Amino acid sequence: MPLRGTGHGKLVGDEAPYFESLAELDQWASLPHEKLTAVLEYQARPQFSELLNQRGKLLVCHDYKGGYTESPSGLCYTFNFWPLCDTFVYFSHHRVTVPPSGWINAAHRQGVKMLGTIIFEGSGEADCLKLIVGCPQAGAGPTLRTDSIPVSRHYASVLAELARQRGFDGYLLNVECPLRGGPEQARALAEWILLLRSELVTKVGPHAQAIWYDSVVFNGQLRWQDRLNSLNLPFFLSSDAFFTNYTWPPSFPALTAQYFMSLDPVLISDDGKGSSISSVKSLQSIFTGVDVWGRGSHGGGGFGSYKAMTHIDPQSLGLSVALFGQAWTWESEQDKPGWNWDQWWEYERKLWIGPADPQEVVPVPDAPRRPGEPECPHDAFEPVASFFVHATPPDPAQLVFYTSFSPGVGRSWFVEGVNVLQTEDGWTDVDKQSSLGNLVWPRPSVMWESNDCPEPLPSASSMLDMSDAWNGGNTLKVSISYAGSTADEALFRCIWLPVQSLNVTSLVSYDVNIVYKTVACEGSDLDLGLFVKPLMAGGGDLPELNVGTSTQSDLENGWTRQVLSFSLSPGTANASVAVGLIIGFIAENPSQALDFSVSLGQLTVYPSPPTARVSRGTPGILWAKFQSTKPLTSPSTGLSGLLAWDIASFFPHLTSRVISSPEDPNPAWILDDTNERFPSFLYFNIYVNLHPLSGSVTEATAAIFIGTTGLDGRANRFYVDPAMLPKNVMDGRGLRFYVQGVSNKGDVLPWEMCAHVDCMFELGGR
Q: Between the chain's N and C termini, which has fewer beta carbons within 10 Å?
């Protein structure tokens, strides 16, 4: 979260972010824990094309410096290519790795499953056996002994409950220590995986996953196979998917596919009766490992990783890819002289989507070959994005689409165009991460609004601009250059700038809300209009849309808002659409070149509100409370504590209505019964004001911003750390904290709908 100050304590973050042993996990399970209600539920992406369902998927396994490195007072690594990704694994070498709540939200916002990790390595053999046989309760009598290894549901239930409570979607199972019980223990472990999957489906949902990493084999030996074969097949059948080791030779992906196709269909399909816990398997269920660090991976990792993906061939062969250690772009470069975030961003986008200049040749180092391995020629560098389908976020009817075009980092924090926080070293908050506009970043695709224009298109580029924002830490600045023309029609030109693709369904009316700022060169004028157009998806005719007229309003600090409604025409079941801007530009001298820019601050898409007859509440904050962690007799030593509040829906005054007859078919009122009937918030901005020694506290508009919620996954609370409080606020009789909500549609609550609480010092103790 963006926080004022530096050196914040651990209490601002997630509680118990990981567990070093199963004993620690049991200790956690012995206490009650409420579900984290500020973590978004997973919503699947719409799938309209059967062809897309047959292509391989991408799993990203995030192994970066042991995990949990994000800082609210520094620029850190963030992942921004969610549209390419189906599943994301937050990985570390703790026994049980729990994904941070911000990472879960970032993934779910884009329809990506987020998994934790269960790992046994080194001295983990005892805990691995304990995972299977369970943990007897204190005071229990002797355990039943038989010739085989018993299988207990205990840890399957506890781990599934942990996933439910924290809001993530399952686990990567990484058993990299031998099973001393041999085949008996291996069989028991495979049975335990089925129990885990059953518990996950019950407690998390049918989308939950347990993915097996290629490690131990059927006889309990630790023998990485680098492919699917008969030695590790039992673990694949018990799991939802399989993650192969990454030291395979070029022939192994094809061998894996061939072996899979030879399996008895009964083994890889359900029984059709719903009585089997086994999931349906396909080639997509096999994620072939690629290590971006190299370490024996074909192609040598780094910018040679595409060579490995060429053999996996997710587009034709249909195998999936597990990309391990993708933060190599940061970790391998960060110690070089002069290195900074901007250099990393360029390096990162080069790996994933190619260089900013399409003509740039990306050098690919020669990869070491194993002894006796023949040369394997490859074409020029291909970015990761070229191998996978670019997916759209969940349907806005299921999860409101919101973006401030944030990569999850920034140097400032803005609230409705006003800079309320300027930092020295920046901030990182993955919870604030959102789509960068998949049709406008990294390369805008402008086109003439009129199809009969013969002139060359204007050139367009887009970049993150951290010097300005509407809500958040940056805008997406689109710069457009037009060469000029002497044609008669050149006085006024009109282009279409698509920004974001979405999948929508019939029988739903959607509202689109965009906030932007423009800069035009001298002698020119711009006219922008929000619009929605159909996209071709999977062949066939373009769907028909009903698009209303946009309404425009001027906002503070040079920003503009436009809103419109649209829906699919009757008879269209679902469709892909593009939300964007029609930009008209007029030049006094059309023969001269002109440049202009559009800074995109915010875009939201959501179901249109009910008709005017429906009585709807207005969101607000009902009350706020501050509980200090220590007595307030000595505020000079630093104030800390928990700020909590409650949200409510406030209805307008009910006008009297006379019901003349018991048979009147019209109800006294009609209430909103949609999913949006009760307020939902993205985050809350927190401010503080000083109670001076004499006089009254100043107005809320003069309060000092100290941070936002979002780092601990808990709704309606904020831990006040001493490091975030300005020094001068401790010089009065007390403090007043303000809580300002930002709705899930990006609307900042007016101050009269916000809450505050006073914290008064005991001056006699100073």
A: C
For 26, counting Cβ atoms within 10 Å of its Cβ (0-12 exposed, 13-18 middle, 19+ buried), the class is middle
Start-to-end CA span in the chain (Å) = 32
Main-chain dihedrals φ then ψ at residue 325, nearest 5 degrees: 75, 45
Q: In 10 A of CB 375, how many CB atoms?
A: 5
What pLDDT digit, counting tens, does each position of 611-625 carry? 778 888 899 999 999
Token digits for 19? Answer: 């567990």
Give the chain's count of helices (H) and strands (E).
11, 33
pLDDT exceeds cutoff 90 at 344: yes
pTM to 2 decimals?
0.94
pLDDT band, very low/low/confident/very high, at 765 (cuts 50, 70, 90) = very low
Q: What is the spatial order of strands in the sheet that 681-691 belongs to? A: 704-708, 681-691, 734-743, 755-760
Residue (of 680, 617, 609, 679) closest to 652 by Cα position: 617
d(CA 340, CA 345): 9
Residue 636 has pLDDT above 60, yes or no: no
In whole angstroms, what is the distance from residue 482 CA to residue 592 CA? 9
Alpha helices in 361-430 (DSSP H): none
- Which residue do the tokens 């939201």 mark? 604
- The model's pLDDT over 81-118, given as tens digits with 9 standing for 90+, comes to 999 999 999 999 999 999 999 999 999 999 999 999 99
Q: How confident is the model at residue 51 (pLDDT cuts 50, 70, 90)?
A: low
Q: What pLDDT, on the 0 to 100 scale, is given for residue 632?
A: 67
Residue 339 to residue 75: CA distance in whole angstroms: 12
156 phi/psi in degrees, rounded to 5: -60, -40
Could you say which DSSP state residue 733 is in? Answer: S
Buried b (16+ CB within 10 A) or exposed e, 266-299: eebeeeeeeeeebbebbbbbbbbbbbbbbeebbb
Cα 424 to the center of its chain, rounded Å: 26
Buried b (16+ CB within 10 A) or exposed e, 144-158: eeeeebebbebbbbb
Residues in the chain: 766
Distance CA 451, CA 449 (A): 6
Candidates 551, 409, 496, 469; CA nearest to 69 is 409
Task: Name 114's Cβ contacts closer than 8 Å, sequence gap at least 6.
Answer: 42, 87, 88, 90, 99, 103, 104, 107, 108, 168, 169
Q: Please, are residues 445 and 452 in contact by the beta-carbon 8 Å criterion? A: no
Structure tokens at 91: 């990985």
Backbone CA torsion sign across 24, 30, 33, 35: positive
Dist. CA 413–CA 724, nearest whole Å: 14
What is the helix (H) or strand (E) element at residue 344, kind and residue range?
Answer: helix 341-353
CA nearest neighbour of 706 among 691, 731, 692, 727: 727
**Per-residue pLDDT at 14:** 72
Give the span between the Cα atoms of 200 and 194, in whole angstroms: 10
Residues forming beta bridges with residue 481, ordered by sequence position: 459, 595
Measure the CA angle with vertex 50, ends 46 and 55; round to 5°: 95
Average pLDDT, the chain: 90
Q: Residue 596 belongs to what H/E stretch?
A: strand 594-607
pLDDT (tens digit per residue) in 254-283: 999 999 999 999 999 876 656 566 679 999
With the CA atoms of 590, 595, 600 and 606 taken in that order, what torsion angle do they form, in degrees rounded to the nearest 10? 20
Which of these, 37, 36, 106, 42, lies nearest to 398 by C-alpha position?
42
* Of 210-214, 269-273, 481-485, 664-668, minimum mean pLDDT range: 269-273
Nearest residue to 602 (alpha-carbon basis) of 739, 747, 753, 418: 747
Distances from the Cα of 322 to the Cαs of 55, 85, 247, in angstroms?
14, 10, 13
Q: What does the DSSP 8-state code read for residue 726? A: -
